[in-house]
Amino acid sequence: MSHRLKILHIISSWGSGIGNELAEFTRRLPCDDFESEICVLSGPKNRNVPNVPTTTLSLRWSFDVSTYFGISCLLRRFRPDIVHAWDSFAQRYGTLHAGCHRVLAEKRDTDTTSGRVQQYFDSKTYRFIVPRRMSDCPKTVIIPPAAVPVPNIEPIPAEELVQQLGFPLVEPTQNYYPVLQSQYDPVRRNYVPILPRTTPFLIGMVLPLCSEHKILDALWAFETLKQVQLNFHVFVIGEGKDQDLFLRYRDRWKLFSQVHFVGNRHDVFRLMPCFDVLLHLSPSAEYSGTILSAMSCGVPVIALETPESREYVLDGTTGMLIPADGDFRFYRRTAAKNLLYLFENEALRQSMQRAAQDRVAKQFNFDAAVQKRINVYREATKAAP
Asked: CB neighbours of 305 closer than 8 A, spacing ≥ 6?
């Protein structure tokens, strides 16, 4: 019997979009050739991958002494052939492995949310914990993006979804005044009212509740939708350090009956097909996998324009992109305008749903990404002395 390669996967937390990709990847690894173990630097311990041991540490800062020794003990016990770092935080701790040439880091843009001072101290700490040749730590591999497969689930009606999650359903009692009519004059305000939509317009957001992901800008856009008396519901899936701040702004703008913070949920794939649109304003590359997940469910995406979103979303065909060269007022106005545009063009939404699913099936196949990683593992072990 041939020797099974031991792979240690290190990830910052399950909350990032990479977590679902890692879980599905380890399930598909052939057990006869590979033995896997997962190390999660921080986060809740309530998620496990079947037949894959998982160790959860308590990372509190960029460099945590307890996490340093925790990974050292794990490396001595498991003795992996390859350490696979899945994100930027994992790269800092994955290089503790003695064989630096066997540390693999996936090519993902570094998170730009930390300041320059923090990045400076992180680089100095990184040089301290990694001895010898920095050029060999780690080896960067480029893996094509892929959409995590989701089961085919029929969307739940809007009223049933709102009731299942325990939120009150607001009855539309007023007319809706569309703001994108060609005959609209801002001076005369000659709106042509239409009857309210019988089913709510459902908007989804799947992000950690942190200020760097522009959650506050999204709340401002939702407040604009309320001003035009739109019948809508927003489901914000995730938790984070700034949750109380966003709740205060939501209540201050009287959005508590339309914007719902549902916390972390492991059944996101059941909720995603119910959304009419996914709003993703985060500039971080580590959470861009949510865009592909929504597209695989046939949900149009309104996303901030980043290198990842440009690769995933075809503007006007599978979703809409918001240029990233403006200030926060520009983000807010454009997000609200795009949401209203998709609301008023049901035919366009349906065409985007079909185009998004077709693009994911052809361009972002998950099996191809799995085989790419397996090939990288075997090449790394052959090149090792």
From this structure: 321, 322, 323, 324
For the chain, what's the residue count? 385
pLDDT digits (tens, 9 = 90+) for 274-308: 899 999 998 887 778 889 888 988 899 999 998 88
Residue pair 176/231 in contact by the 8 Å Cβ criterion: yes
Between the alpha carbon of residue 76 and those of residues 4, 70, 79, 98, 185, the distances in Å are 18, 10, 5, 10, 71
Which range (10-19, 99-108, 218-227, 346-355) has the least confidence? Answer: 99-108
Q: Token pair 């609301």 is at which residue?
A: 343
Strands (E), 74-225: 82-85, 103-106, 139-141, 201-206
How far apart CA 167 and CA 257 sit, in angstroms, is: 8
Each residue of 233-260: pLDDT tens digit?
A: 899 988 888 889 999 999 888 888 889 8
- Rounded Cα distance, 312 and 120, in Å: 32
Q: What domains are there in the chain, each with its CATH number?
A: 5-146+365-383 (3.40.50.2000), 158-363 (3.40.50.2000)
Spatial separation of the C-alpha atoms in residues 49 and 54, rounded to whole Å: 8
170 vs 215: CA distance, rounded Å: 23
Element (H, E) at 185: none
Give the CA-trace dihedral at 49, 52, 57, 61, to 10 degrees. -70
| Contact status, residue 192 vs residue 181, Cβ threshold 8 Å | yes
Count of CB atoms situated within 10 Å of the CB of 183:
8
How far, CA to CA in Å, does 79 sit from each of 1, 99, 288? 19, 11, 32
Q: Answer whether residue 173 shows pLDDT above 60.
A: no
Q: 385: cis peptide before it, omega within 30°?
A: no
**C-alpha span between 143 and 107 (Å, rounded):** 7
* Residue in 262, 248, 249 with CA at minimum distance from that of residue 217: 249
Integer-rounded Cα radius of gyration of the chain: 23
**Which amino acid would we find at residue 234?**
V
> Tokens representing 334?
């454009």
Ranges of H-type helices in 152-207: 158-164
State the pTM of this model.
Answer: 0.75
Please identify which residue in the block is written with the tokens 């311990």: 45
